[in-house]
Amino acid sequence: MRKIIPATLLILTAAFLSVAFPLATYTLTLASFGLAHVLTELRYVNYRFNQRLKSDLQRKIVILLLIIVNLRISELLGILNSSISVSLELVCVIGLVILVIPILTVKNWKLGILGILICIILSAGVFWIPTLMMLILAVLHNLTPIGFIAEKLRGLQRKFALFICVIVFFLIPSVIISGYPYNYLSSLDLVAPSANILQAGNLQLHLSAFVPQELHKSFIAIHAFSAAVFLQCMHYAVILGVLPNWERNKHSNLLVCNRQNIFEKIVIFLSTLIFIYFAQSFTDARKLYSIAAAIHAWVEFPILLLSFAIPAEENHDLVGN
């Protein structure tokens, strides 16, 4: 009960801020928690899933991730235009999924089919709408905490947690997209969509982070953006508020606790530096941040697929060649 009340207040506050002040909420949470959540998520992925992979598979995953990093850097330096780099990046993501399809097929043919379907969908995106596909994946990435929760928990605990996830990650965003919360708060004069704490430009400049260009002038654009901002807040909340506790509870000895404390201090230090950069030049900082964000987003494609094929109870059954 002690955790339910603060969690409920956090969810309601995030929903209110996302609807009333979507731009300020998006820019401030990204600048404050973006890098921290990337580093924390990568640490959790390594702690939770590393032992389920053999070195050969790990090496292939790292190679594809390094290619993605180089593509992002090349785009940042103006060597590649965005349309080419986005398409090539999606090809690498397809490669990440292809790496684990043989393992999925052996372990669970249904997961193997799922991996193939993902590859087909991504391939269609590469050939027809690469930019839109990348945008959709950016939004869907905010749902990855559901995968971590489903993989970690068991029994009634899992069912209850997934029920809460349905409310938080699907029901509330759907209500936000409907526009009713915005209209109600607007009637109370409690909305300021373009309010901007970090001087990151107007709302129109940032809609493309979550909303297709074709919808920018439609009535649903601001509501879709607000819903995505809320999902981003909930993503950060789970990654930063739940996953470290799971790791800490698993390893409670003094040495591991000291390492965790050192890691947290490093994260705070680096997050402070990137926040200062965001405050000075939000656009440039966001481009730099996107390189780290790409690593943590794409590595989860093969990892989460494998995690359900090889549960934690089977950690002894390493996969790869």
Report on this model:
The chain has 321 residues and is mostly helical. The chain has one domain (4-314). Helices cover 79% and strands 0% of the residues. It contains 14 helices and no strands. The radius of gyration is 20 Å and the shape is globular.
Main features:
about 325 residues; mainly alpha
Per-chain topology:
Blueprint: H1 4-20, H2 22-49, H3 55-76, H4 82-107, H5 109-128, H6 130-140, H7 144-152, H8 155-178, H9 180-187, H10 203-206, H11 221-241, H12 243-250, H13 254-280, H14 282-309
Helix pairs in contact: 1-2, 1-11, 2-11, 2-13, 2-14, 3-4, 3-14, 4-5, 4-14, 5-6, 7-8, 7-14, 8-11, 13-14
Note the gap between the termini.
47 Å
Strand element count: 0
The share of residues in helices is: over 70%
User: What are the secondary-structure elements, in order, as H or E?
Assistant: HHHHHHHHHHHHHH
Largest sheet: none
Low-confidence stretches are: none
From the helix content, strand content and strand pairing, which structural class follows?
Answer: mainly alpha
Count of helices?
14
What general form does the structure show?
A: globular
What integer value in Å does the Rg equal?
20 Å
The domain tally reads: 1
What percent strand?
under 5%
| Overall average pLDDT | 90
